[in-house]
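User: Could you check the structure of this?
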Amino acid sequence: MDNSSLRGFFNEWYVRDISKKEKAANEILRKQGKYYRSAPYGYIKDPKDKHHLIPDPNTKDIVLRIFESYVGGMSLAKIAEMLNAEGIPSPTAYKKNIYPNYKSVYTDDVWSSDGIRTMLKNEAYIGNTTLGRSYKVSYRSKKKATIPKEQWVRHEGTHEPLISRDLWEMSRPRIKCPARASSTTQEIPPLSGKLVCGCCGKYLVHRITGRKRKCDGEYVKYGYYRCPDVIKGKGTCENTRQISYLTLEKAVIEAINNAIKAYCDEDKISIENL
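Assistant: Sure, the predicted structure tokens are below.
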């Protein structure tokens, strides 16, 4: 074996050995609930303990504002648009301003819907630490694979929360709902996220066509619901039918009225009693 081959062998062994030691050290920190990743937006590392998070006075109020805006009904796109219009640096841009040598896999320096959605799912903002969410495929590669959520290591109350538990719980129904706001109206159709396919069980997707249909004397755009697998052309679901939004709306209103008639005395219903 020549010198170059021997040098290559030792280099390979050294890198593999360092990787094993790093994994072992991180495993100990995970069990102890020590934070070893970069601080999420809204937090900084505690100068007295690098494994502990403390609120960032420059950004903590932005996090609270994002949650309050979302709970108040604002869409992800609208929140991003609002922050960009006010010139508030995105998490990536903010870190680049503080740390000139900071490098990120995210090249976009503006706020985006995906970035805000990720923040709204982060339990760090209620004081919890969740670790072990991904792992490196190989010590030779930077690629990471996602670990199922039920296998994450979770520790509660490890640091000061930026939002209240009530605000967090109020944001859960919308963030868990697969419905997305319309790009034109920024509104979520009332039935979106409530209808599932009878064949595969996936949430039906709302679409608006260019056609118009007469409704109560006016012509409105024709919307419909359909299985997402059919729309994406996956061919994994046999349900190829679509149903009109107006038809569904009419059926739901009729069902509500029938329930009112069955359980309420119509003669005693008034605005004052509601």
